[in-house]
């Protein structure tokens, strides 16, 4: 059981002060009955909430897909820099959202933003074998030695990487699939071959490809089908 002002604050953009006012204006109804006080407690999994005549859908968790632009950092707060949460619409702001996994400031592409810690763990843990696929451009030609090296497991200073798949798509471009998410992993893997990553774009997590309609900087709620796909483990490990 939770206080109604807490439930409303989590599910909407209203501040506690605004909620108090809405309640005193007799605009908040639970299961058809007018709510008298902000302290009234309810089981949020089992209520019909109406505010100012509008039904409010109660969601336990929120799952948002973002096409991250450059210059946003994958963090929940910083002193001066823009974070991916700055791109999230106002109505989700009262939730404890965080990006599930980090993309570097200069990396673009698919990011899941959620308030579901267990779900995030399930798609990030290397033991779950959920693949992440990236389009990469480097500053020197991609070689077959890199392809073989990625497959065998690149040795980084914090240990050997799991086998990764490097597919050459152009003289300087490739697709890379990994199932881990170490700090600057792809940049460091190419660094072992004397190459510098100049563009990095995540296009897939699990079996979910970046939705075509999601422009750079846009956020949308994931559908059930998309959430299912994002959790799917690699059938054939890279
Ligand atoms: N690997 C990197 O080096 N950077 C990213 O942002 C993601 C994977």
* Strand segment tally: 17
Radius of gyration, CA atoms, in whole angstroms: 22 Å
- Overall form: elongated
Uncertain spans:
none
Span between N and C termini? 46 Å
- Quaternary assembly: single chain
Query: What ligands does this structure carry?
Result: uracil
Q: What profile does the largest beta sheet have?
A: 9 strands, mixed
Q: Which class do the helix and strand fractions yield?
A: alpha+beta
Strand content: 25-35%
Q: Please, how many helices? A: 6
Order of helices and strands: EHHEEEEEEEEHEHEEEEHEEEH
Mean pLDDT: 94
Helix content: 10-25%
Main attributes?
elongated, 9-stranded mixed beta sheet, 17 strands, alpha+beta, binds uracil, 4-stranded antiparallel beta sheet, 238 residues, single chain
Structural summary, described in words:
The chain is elongated. It is built from six helices and 17 strands. With 238 residues, the protein is α+β, with helices and mostly antiparallel strands. The chain has helices at residues 4-11, 16-24, 117-124, 144-152, 185-191, 224-231, and strands spanning 2-3, 28-30, 33-34, 41-42, 49-51, 54-56, 63-68, 98-99, 108-114, 132-138, 155-156, 159-160, 165-168, 173-178, 197-205, 208-209, 219-221.
């Amino acid at each position: 059981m939770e206080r109604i002002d807490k439930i409303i604050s989590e599910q909407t953009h209203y501040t506690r002060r605004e909620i108090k006012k809405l309640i005193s204006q007799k605009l908040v109804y639970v299961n058809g009955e007018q709510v008298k006080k902000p302290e009234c407690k309810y089981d949020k999994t089992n209520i019909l909430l109406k505010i100012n005549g509008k039904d409010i859908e109660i969601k336990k968790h929120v799952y948002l897909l973002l096409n991250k632009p450059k210059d946003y950092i994958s963090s929940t707060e910083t002193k001066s820099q823009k974070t991916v949460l700055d791109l999230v619409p106002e109505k989700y702001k009262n939730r404890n959202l965080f990006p599930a996994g980090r993309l570097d400031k200069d990396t673009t592409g698919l990011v899941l933003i959620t308030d579901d810690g267990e779900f995030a763990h399930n798609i990030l843990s290397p033991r779950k074998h959920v693949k992440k696929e990236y389009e990469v451009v480097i500053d020197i030609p991609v070689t077959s030695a890199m392809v073989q090296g990625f497959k065998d497991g690149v040795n980084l200073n914090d240990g050997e990487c799991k086998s990764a798949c490097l597919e050459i798509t152009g003289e300087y471009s490739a697709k890379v699939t990994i199932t881990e998410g170490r700090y600057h992993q792809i940049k460091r893997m190419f660094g072992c071959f004397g190459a510098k990553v100049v563009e990095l774009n995540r296009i897939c997590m699990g079996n979910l490809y970046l939705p075509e309609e999601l422009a750079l900087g846009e956020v949308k709620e994931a559908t059930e089908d998309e959430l299912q796909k994002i959790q799917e483990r690699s059938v054939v490990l890279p």
